[in-house]
Amino acid sequence: MLRINEYTDKEKMKNYYRTSDMINLIDFFPNISPVKDLTIVENIKEYQENKDFFDSFKQNRVDTIKGKKPIMSIENAGKSNGFYETIVRVKEIDEDGVLVLFNIESEPTERYERYAGI
């Protein structure tokens, strides 16, 4: 598990496509960033061992290490149902893939209302 509030974890998190973008938003535009509690689940065992903690998150994305082809084929609404199924699917596609969990400051909007932005 990698957590944004741990310096060494945060540096490792910057090696992932979507996560690094979210960190930049948090670091450089803290007043407009809705993202908080950014955490990465690195594998299925880790998810199972920390299920209660991970289930406290409301939003998710999938990600992989920069330099690899981004994971595009997992469709989910970005909401909390199905975290376990999502990490299993991620690992089937890319062994370096991760599940990015986070909460947001406000109520989430539908994708069509924000043109697929976070």
List the helices and strands and how they pair.
Elements (H helix, E strand, L loop, with lengths): L1 E2 L3 H7 L3 H12 L6 E7 L2 H6 L1 H4 L4 E5 L19 H11 L4 E7 L6 H4 L4
Antiparallel strand pairs: 1-2, 2-4, 3-4
Describe this structure in words.
By secondary structure, the protein is of the alpha+beta class. The chain has 6 helices and 4 strands. The protein has helices at 7-13, 17-28, 44-49, 51-54, 83-93, 111-114; strands at 2-3, 35-41, 59-63, 98-104. It has a 4-stranded antiparallel beta sheet with strand order 1-2-4-3. The protein is globular, with a radius of gyration of 13 Å. The protein starts with a strand and ends with a helix. The model has no long low-confidence stretch (mean pLDDT 87).
- How many helices does DSSP assign? 6
Q: What letter string, H or E per element, gives the SSE order? A: EHHEHHEHEH
Range of helix content: 25-40%
Give the biggest sheet.
4 strands, antiparallel
Radius of gyration: 13 Å
Distance between the termini: 22 Å
Mean pLDDT: 87
Number of DSSP strand runs: 4
- Briefly note the structural class of the backbone: alpha+beta
Strand order of the largest sheet: 1-2-4-3
Strand content: 15-25%
Which consecutive residue ranges, at least 5 long each, have pLDDT under 50?
none
Choose one word for the global shape.
Answer: globular
